UniProtKB/TrEMBL annotation:
Residues 7-61 form the F-box domain. Transmembrane segments: none annotated. This is F-box domain-containing protein. Gene3D superfamilies: 1.20.1280.50, Ribonuclease Inhibitor (3.80.10.10). Pfam families: F-box-like. InterPro entries: F-box_dom (IPR001810), LRR_dom_sf (IPR032675).
Amino acid sequence: MANCPVLDLPVEITTEIFSNYVEKFHDILRTDTGPLILASVCTTWREICLSTVSLWASVLLSYKFNAGKAHLRFLESWLSRVESYPLDLSIWKAEATLITFLSRYSFQWRTLTFRLQSSNAIFPKDKIGKIPSLTKLEIFGSSPAAGSAKLTAFSEAPSLRELLLSHTSLDDISLPWIQLTRLSMDGNLVDCMKILDETPNLEILHLKVIPSLEQTSRYVTLVRLHSFAFHFESDGALLDHLTLPVVKTIEFSDLGSRGVSRLLALGARSAWSPRSIHLMRMSTEIFVRSLHSFPSLEQVRIDSIPNSDKLILLARLLTNDADFLPALRSMTITFGGLTTEALSAALAEMLATRWHGNREGVARLKSFYLYSSRGRRLEELRAREELNARVHPLLEEGLDVVFANKAKA
């Protein structure tokens, strides 16, 4: 590869490029991507790959990995390149043979993700060994079969701070709950409350609550929690059982009228003053009702407003009601309708009013982002150009405004 300019790059830059190319949790059996294909290009790249241990330290073992002798020998060769670097492991099929093999490296485990199929016997505590470096644990899959032993392999993990649990209850697993600071969990009301009762030091909590007829008498106060996300249960029954006095960032989806009432009661009970909110998959009326109740909000994100009439309603509230989001400095909206003349006028007036900040007690808006899911139509592009022309003087003065297409997932 003579006269190839890319080979003249400093090793540090090439290493950084490689690190961005190799995705986290790389499937080691794939031959069309990852460090192996980079190493096959030329001698120089091979030397860089083999000397950059981090390229090999984030490993995905997919369902294609069968834990037979050939695959285990390949895995052993792969991990030999990691040396003593921390390991991030994602295991789609947690078989006893594979876990026993990986336990040789348990001292290096930093992140472990696995899918628990039927039995906890694949993680025998006496064979796993010490896991002093494990900071993050993710467990997916259905609860173990009736009669399965409780999973205790991770009960002594001194560095563990972050946990993701899916369909796993307190009765299924033993963990150092009190030291956790970040928890993502899905489950029913009873199982969620049992775990929250054991995790008083949480700072970040993401809940996906599965509707259930079961009830609980548990009530939990999380005095360190600053970020709270709650999804899927429209009635919000779990919210009745929480007090969150220092929350600053909140995220909610799918709440109905009763759920919003419980959210507002949680806010009153907690005497919180959130600064940022993200609302999804809720009616515009419920959006507005929620936002009216949080005058401390500085950042607002709404997904999604369905049509221009609903967005005009919101724009007029921001224009005419000084008590509606008086602290607002940044707003992001995804919008499913068309940009009509009436909407352009309402948005332009709102932005001018909030940017100039002429009202006492109302903060100056700094940024407004509107993403449209219908922005590729010719008439919509023209309407957006007209809207940009209306607000151009504000942009010249320094207001950060973006009207753009909604990015595809």
